[in-house]
Amino acid sequence: MSSEGTIVGGRFRLDQPIGRGRAGIVWLAFDTRLFRTVAMKRMYLPVGGGERAEQARAAAMQEGKDAARIEHPCAIKVFDVLPDGQDVWLVMEYIPSRSMATFLSEHGRLTPDQAALLGIQLGNALAAMHAAGFVHRTLEPGTVLLADDGGVKLTDIGISGGGPNPAYVAPEVARGLPPTPAADVFSLGATLYTAVEGVPPFGDDGQSSERPPHNAGVLTEALRKMLRQDPVTRPTMADTVRSMKAITEGRETAFIPPTAPAIPTMPAGPPPRHPAGPPMPPSGPQFQQQLHVTPPPGYPLQGATQQIPPVPNAAQATQYVPPPVPPAQPAEEWNLPVSKKTLVTVAAILAAVLVGILVSELFFV
Question: What is the bridge-based pairing of β-strands 78-84 and 97-99?
């Protein structure tokens, strides 16, 4: 039994469990050789020994090697598959995330637009696998990881151990036929149906009558085609992706898990108008303001409206230039005109002075 601190393959230290998949516990581990954090899962093997156990072990090793060949941004990268005693371990990239099943149980259903955008990402990853000659075989909400940064990742690619959830298994696979790309289309349809309706389309056992969708909206017709009982009549994965893109074309809704930070958006429409003062009059050389005045009694009404000429702009305004100052002229000294009255006055004063002098001489001699 694995526990914290166990060294797997002489290299990987199990630190703590971070989830539970179909095949058991997923561990957060540390690669002591490359000094990086990874995720590790022990693949499911039947209990017992003998030839049957060896065959199961060899099959698990081959499934791990096939999964390591898948390269896609929406698929968990498998770094290695290694034996450890009687166990077989998958070494995978570590992505902080939660399964879609956990997400739905905690946050409820997705909108049809969100589910369609999710289907585009999952469908592209599945189409890449099909082009490489692989099928997922166990697609369900538990094998879809919603990353904390908003990404989507498929896990358990091509891993058959533990048994798939019957609610998402294509009917032909449930009858014993080998899984095909058409079976992945059915599983994707059942997964998206659960995302918008909250329950699987054919019940938890996959054997009940189809429940008509009530919340699928624009996704309804695409889901019905993906969930057809006859695999021949189902659309291909590429057609499914094109259908999802047509549904979401021109729409702004995006699938953002609540673990990613919310992105605020500005409301659509014109910006709000702020209160302001009275409207400003138009400007320009042609504008003439009319000033209405009330004339006094008896004043004619004509001309009561005063026309104020427009104020020229800076380029048109005439700059004030003071008048030139004439040069100073030298004053002519003692060149003032003398009137006749002034001469008489001066003569009278002189005469009075002379008379005074004569009188003083007569009295003091």
Answer: unpaired
For the chain, give the longest Cα–Cα distance: 184
CA 254 to chain centre: 9
CA distance 92 to 28: 10
CATH number 1.10.510.10 is the correct assignment for the domain at 96-256: yes
Residue type, 211: R
Q: Give the other-Cβ count within 10 Å of 98's Cβ.
A: 18
Q: Distance between CA atoms of 139 and 125, rounded to whole angstroms?
A: 12
Pick the CATH number of 1-94 from 1.20.120.1730, 3.40.1400.10, 3.30.200.20, 3.40.50.300: 3.30.200.20
Q: Which residues are catalytic?
A: 137
pLDDT, tens only, 135-163? 999 999 999 999 998 899 999 998 887 77
pTM over 0.90: no
Using DSSP's 3-state secondary structure scheme, residue 273 falls into coil
Q: How far apart are CA 344 and CA 351, in angstroms?
A: 11
